[in-house]
Amino acid sequence: MAVPLPEVERLSASVVRILAGNPGKVIPGTNTYLIGRGPQRLLIDTGEGRPSWQAAIRSVLTAENATIQQALITHWHTDHTYGIPDLLKICPGVKIYKNDPDDGQLEIRDGQVFKTEGATLTALHTPGHTTDHVAFLFEEENAMFTGDNVLGHGTAVFEELSTYLRSLEKMHKLSQGRAYPGHGAVIEDCKSKVTEYIQHRRQREDEVLRVLRLGTLDGAASPPAAAAARGKEVSPDRTSGLWTPIELVKAIYRAVPEELHLPASNGVIQVLMKLEQEGKVTHELQSGRWGIARSERPAL
User: Fold this and answer.
1) What CATH number is attached to the domain comprising 219?
2) pTM of the full predicted structure?
3) pLDDT tens for each residue of 277-298
4) Coiled-coil regions in this chain (predicted)?
5) Total number of domains constituting the chain
6) What CATH number does the domain containing 158 carry?
7) What are phi and psi of 98, to 5 degrees?
8) Enzyme catalytic residues
């Protein structure tokens, strides 16, 4: 479980984190960040409209003798955007920026720079978690606001794996110091965390390919052993078996509670779709099963 975080915490001379008041079972609630040192501040994300967040924002702004000039939205998910109406009541003059903006909002473009006293932020379009996802480089601290692409606890979900990996590579190249994530505690070494994320995704790809080739994660398995792992019969040629995503989950995530298998299958499907694009696996549309591509099968 994630370590509880204070509702309001000053993280640096120019960054105050205000929790959105929406803690989850696995990851902490949404982080919103008040940025800058002068009377005009930037805000990253707005939570989902909880009364506790409204009260906390009002209290912090009063204590800081400041207002919010611009709000920068990392992506469209409701736990980052549903607090926008509340923010407009608290700071009526605030301008809302988002990649692929909604009505009344202004666009965030890749490379766009936002400035306030004590902070210079450069937008990075980093699709993957969502198509409109944006991270921000924080020049004065050599830091990065990573949104939901990289979290302070656990791993992130994503809409399309190949796109997500390209964004992680972009973030890795530009990261230097700490990371301020969309959920969870501050990450002191952003580059190492992004490396960990990339390696984790590659490991999952390797595991999917291994099970499709051999019928198990543990090594070369006889057809009966492979069948036992999957709960169904297989061909004597172990490389010709076809698997559903949930069968792959049961083989790969054996130590994970069964109630988490269905959510895990979404990630496995994304891995399979990427591997299909690369010609490494094939998909039987009628049955919904997947198998190793002929070119990837080991010599027998």
Assistant:
1) 1.10.10.10
2) 0.88
3) 999 999 998 889 999 998 766 6
4) none
5) 2
6) 3.60.15.10
7) -155, 140
8) 79
